[in-house]
């Protein structure tokens, strides 16, 4: 086991002067001279440390006179020639989820050993996440498909940046037979091995949109006792429908149980042709609503979980989320987004919520997100992450069946409904991001942006129904208490087209 990283301070403790203070110009000169000497001494020490450590060290220098960050830190980073050896040095290590000859065993101990050798075992956060998504290797054939895929990727990059999550975006088939919807299993499994420092791997389909940039997964609370989480519909689970649990968004803990689970899932796929064909017939026979004998990843997941409840569902196993939009179907979300936005704006317009309207750096997003979530709790009905019966922002809006890249959408949906729905969801999410930059879109389906006034969205900066309100409290009540989405929207001063949209009643 390597020695812990040495830490060398280049900033002395502030000296306490008890004698009469010298004249200001002399004090300033002496202070600068002292700082220069201290900094030079610190650099000399750093140089010595670097000589001792060799090239496998990283150094961060902080200018003298800065606050608590004024440390010079030398952290050894193991290089190609540095011990100790880890599981990566095993020639039989396989990254593949479809390798029946080299199954990875003892992963929990191997991962713990790697973390310990890097000094990470005691310091790692239980919520460290790597998000994985991807698209096909070839250009999209659907109209504007590549443009939509770029916008969908930007949405995930935005969410990950705001929440300190790494994003791995893959466009390769890591197994020649595991293509299309089966391609997710090999890359998720490989990501677990490539990122032993990550506690969770979060798969998100390319056609899923983050529509609540404030929401963080409750990994260390609600999901702390589970290894795999996906979204399900209780009534469909009771019927054992192949649509009961969606495979488009899931989070999996980086542990041996999860590796075994992914291997079992993969063995129902096309990498094992005979088993794949056999499972296809089983799924069609045993799962409701399944009219094809082709085994897809979702029917395999549903069959695994619902046919093996005692073995796979429960603590230290799998959990099916049914109480918020861990992944919501776009058809029941997009027409309500304008109403959701209006209710959030109404909460922020309150005179009791000036802190929510403060301008702030983007890096402070999580703090302001927590304050905003606390403010809307109780004022806006519904659970955090959104739900059918409330008006909270949905975490993820999934455009299942729209197929933006291939263009081969489900014939149940029109091209217009898919395109407009995606634009509405993406702009709804973009507005949450743009706010930190001082802008917002000119309307729910308008790609133009407008600068936000100071103290946005305070009521005295807005016009409701075309008239300036003198009693913003009444506006808040009318928005917060309404049970219908028949809401006429707010207007920014001198921009009469801003949100001049009336939602349909439902």
From TrEMBL:
It holds the Pfam family Glyco_transf_34. It comes from the Eukaryota. It is a single-pass type II membrane protein. Keywords: Glycosyltransferase, Golgi apparatus, Membrane, Signal-anchor, Transferase, Transmembrane, Transmembrane helix. GO terms for cellular component: endosome; Golgi membrane; trans-Golgi network. Its main location: Golgi. It is found in: Golgi apparatus membrane. The chain crosses the membrane at residues 36-62. The keyword Transferase applies. GO terms for molecular function: galactosyltransferase activity. Signal peptide: none annotated. This is Uncharacterized protein. It comes from Digitaria exilis.
